[in-house]
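Cross-posting from the chemistry board since nobody answered there.

I work mostly on the small-molecule side, so proteins are not my area. We synthesized magnesium ion and want a rough idea of how it might sit in this target. Sequence and SMILES are below. Is it possible to get a predicted 3D structure of the two together?
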Amino acid sequence: MLQLSLGKSEIGLVFLDTNLQEEQMTYTKTLSFDMDGTITDLSFAESVWLEGIPRLYALKKGLTFKEARKHVKDEYDKVGREQLEWYDLTYWCKKFGLEFSPKELLISFENRIKVFPEVKDVLEEYRNKGYRLIIVSNARREFVNLQLERTEIEHYFERVFSSTSDFNLTKKTVKVYQQVSKIINVSPSEMIHVGDDLLFDFIIPRKLGIKSFYLDRTGEKSGESIIHNLKELIVTL
Ligand SMILES: [Mg+2]
């Protein structure tokens, strides 16, 4: 990895560097990203949950879209985002008695999948610095994969984890990050995680000793380890 990122003339310089040991150590670092709200904006997920499902439910029950949306939202809230069901289209399909293929529903909104403007530059920069890039998302595998495919950023990531599909857990528990650290064979102290959820992406990974950044894209909060877009990682790391 070290050699691949350097031109031929630079390799010689690095071998003369007395800090080589230290340089190599930095290359074991892993930079982990949340997906929705961090890499991709929320319009795709919100379209599926707050437009697609309510529309189908309205049709099924003869309700207005507004009525259906309220009902659906109330039901989501009863479950809550810390439960596995929250993320599971098949569960909601059964719950609301809807006959559709989750895959078709996702594909019907794929044109709304968008990465935030700075994402590619930041991924490119950290990949060139030799960081291993991974994703640790609560979203189910089908959401994550489709978003990665449509935005053509999949190749940046060495591993992509869906906590709900892969571990049957949400990121409310340190177990997710423990599993990830074990699988990629990197200690939590060599990991950095960034995401837009205060609990899932900041409080929980920090409990395990993962250096974490809370991404507040609204710009309302500020402080140590709080960033407002991914470009700011360059300044704080
Ligand atoms: Mg998120």
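Reply from a structural biologist on the board:
Welcome over. Reading the output above for you: Residues 34, 36-38, 195-197 surround magnesium ion (CB under 6 Å). The longest strand covers residues 132-137. Happy to explain the token format if needed.
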